[in-house]
Amino acid sequence: MFSPGAESLYGDSNFPPSPETTLQTAGAMIAIELIYQGQEHNVDIPLITIFQKIMDAMEAQTPVFHYWQNEHGLYQLSVEFMVPANYANGPSQDYGTVDGEACPSIKLAENSAMKRVFEYLARVHRIAVMDYSSRVIEKYEDRIHNMYQRVNSVKDALEYMLQQWDESMKKAEKLNLALEKKIMDETVAAASKIFCDVGELFRSIIQRFRDSYFNAVCEEYQKLEAERRYHLKASDHRNNLARFEAPRNKVWFNEKDVIDYLMSYLGTMPARYSNESVEKYSFKGEVKMLLPHIPGVACEGVTKVTGTVESTAARSEEKAAGAAIRFLERHMKFRVIDHNYAERLNAKARKEAIKNLEARFCVLGTKIKEEWSSMLKNTRTAKEPYGERSSFWLSAPTDDQIKAFQFCSQEIYSIGSDCASRYENAVSKLDAVKK
């Protein structure tokens, strides 16, 4: 949660008063120029920076890096590191050495070595390297879970609607068959004509809406259901794999570490943190950042961002740092790229896919409502010539005609009432889950 406007305070005693003094490095100048131009750009946190913070978090010995250049002019990095006993997958601490691939630049050589180190930690010691993207992934997964539950609810409501719509049409089809039998059995032409007229009316209703049901709505529903099952199967596979490969330990390159890097990226001073007790056993954290003056960017100088209320002081400050990251991403128009960023994009894509699937289920529900409502109107129209105010009674009908008329009138009324009742019940279920 951002503090309103994320206050900018000049003259804070903890920082130099002039933000212009924070422009320290050529890298920072380039970053500020990109921000000034309003360009969205990536802030890549080097994997070697993340690795060193991970080692600090585990209170491990300082790793040793060996760089060299081979006879082909390619760079390589070899890393010697220690995994403490409380993190090692064994009774004692572990010492490892990992060599990266030969690469055309030092940065690529570092990334290659770090990826192999992280793979080693995961494979040998079941240590997962977590970062800011991991936090975002957790939020995405929660949203995916909630959206998937809504998708299932909407799907169940649509399935019920289709079943009830089908039952309504079956009743109309049953009446049509009864009318055909009446026509064959009827010997009085005038009475037979009544059966023929009603039968022709209902055949047109059945033909139109049964075709619509099978050829359009049902086919579309089956496609969406197949897609839902695909997502369910993929989700189950990921969950099973996650349980099977569950890490023994998670080591964090946390939000405060990200802010440290971003302050360095902007060429400014490290951020300062504080927290206050707001309730019993609850804390609210705050981060102060000294931001450089960038024309066109609303925030500069000493900028405060607060987090949400948390149960520990440490976590409250991390939440404040997380809020500060989002604040900077929004105002500085950059994206933080860390170790798990690729998986973050995958999680976001899954979220968008489920969101899209839910929307399409809802659109289909609206389509079913419209088609079924149209059928209901056609059925009501069929009732009008056979109601109490029908002009039929003005034509001095015979007893056979009266019996035919009353039969048709009762059946049409029964079908109309049944269709209306099923429609209202099914639509109310759909509307309830869409809220």
What proportion of the residues form beta strands (DSSP E)? 15-25%
Secondary-structure-based class equals: alpha+beta
Task: Give the strand tally.
Answer: 11
Largest sheet composition: 4 strands, antiparallel
Overall, the morphology is: elongated
- The SSE order reads EHEHEEEHEHHEHEEEHEHH
Number of helices: 9
Uncertain regions spanning at least 5 consecutive residues: 1-24
The rounded Rg comes to 35 Å
> Quick check: average pLDDT?
86
Structure in words:
With 435 residues, the protein is α+β, with helices and mostly antiparallel strands. 60% of the residues lie in helices and 15% in strands. The strands form 4 sheets. The chain has a 4-stranded antiparallel beta sheet with strand order 1-10-9-8. Strands 3-4-5 form a 3-stranded antiparallel beta sheet, with helices on one face. The chain has a two-stranded parallel ribbon with strand order 2-11. Helix 4 runs antiparallel to helix 5 (189-244) and helix 4 runs parallel beside helix 8 (341-383). The longest helix has 56 residues, at 189-244. It is elongated. The two termini are 26 Å apart. The model is unreliable at 1-24 (pLDDT under 50).
